[in-house]
Amino acid sequence: MFSSFMINTWIAATAIAFVAAFIGFFVVVRRSAFAAHALPLGAFPGAAAANLLGIDPLIGLLVFVGMGVLLLRQLVRMGRRDVGTGLVLVLFLGVGALLLSMTSAYAPAVFSLLFGEVLGVSDADLWPILGICALVVTGIALYFRPLLLDSTFPDLAALQGIRAARMDLVFLTLLALVTATALPVVGAFLVFTLLVGPPAAAQALSGNPMRVLVLSVVFAEGCIWSAIALSYWTNWPIGFFVGTIGAGLFTVARSYRHWNQRQRNFVVL
To answer: How confident is the model at residue 1 (pLDDT cuts 50, 70, 90)?
Structure first.
């Protein structure tokens, strides 16, 4: 499990889980789970386009998530966020279907992009992943306070001169970068789990933002490490374990919160 060919997997997964926990905190606070689901699937045709053009799939992913962010912002301005997100999702899935129909050479890689490829991280893949993760961490550090204020108290943020449209663009851009980076490792369907499961479980256990962030990181790292180990031992897809563990974390956290509240009410009575 800790052989030389697995080292890149552990490093990449650790970095991705770390940044996913941070941006996932804002996904949960801003109630943007649908966007966190749509952008990974919207980025999927980018890899197909890159294959057709013979370029690095990460370039295609970044281009398409960038397009997704711009389209999402424009559609949101014209109507409801959920409708705009849904339109971006179906548009990009349609484009992806078209691109996939134009080549058969891409078919073997479809499964790994949808559900993840735990052993597919090479040295050439690792450095771009770490570079983008560092960029996301820098962005979060620079915009953490205004993003948090805009996410929790938008009226107060507006009074302090923080523009909601700008914060929305910053948030979607960081989310898109995390999506493009994580998709080749954990897959389009399971990026959503890392972005929502651990942060939602952490929020169920605490109302303190810093404590929630720490718990989100702990839960996300535990989730991805456990998934890698179980995938290695069983030869089952990593996506199955990421999804199962993520859902289990949230279920246990919500159950504990409910039980704790009942205990407090019982003591008061």
So the answer is: low
- Residue 2 per-residue DSSP state: -
pLDDT in tens, 156-184: 888 888 888 888 889 888 988 888 887 77
Quick check: pTM over 0.70? yes
Between CA 37 and CA 63, with CA 184 as vertex, the angle to 5 degrees is 70
Neighbours of 124 (CB within 10 A): 10
- 25 pLDDT band, cuts 50/70/90, is very high
Q: Burial, 121: exposed, middle or buried (Cβ in 10 Å; 0-12, 13-18, 19+)?
A: buried
Distance separating alpha carbons of residues 223 and 237, to the nearest angstrom? 14
List the chain domain ranges: 4-268
Q: Of 77, 28, 52, which Cα lies nearest the Cα of 253?
A: 28
> Which tens digit of pLDDT belongs to each residue from 27-36?
988 888 877 7
CATH number, domain 4-268, options 1.10.3470.10, 3.40.1190.20, 1.20.1300.10, 3.40.50.150: 1.10.3470.10
Report the pLDDT averaged over residues 128-142.
90
Q: Which of 86, 33, 96, 36 shows the shortest CA–CA distance to 61?
A: 96
Rg of the chain over Cα atoms, rounded to whole angstroms, equals: 19
Look at the chain and count its residues. Answer: 269
Q: What's the CA gap between 259 and 206, in Å, rounded?
A: 14
Nearest C-alpha neighbor of 61 from the set 71, 48, 73: 48
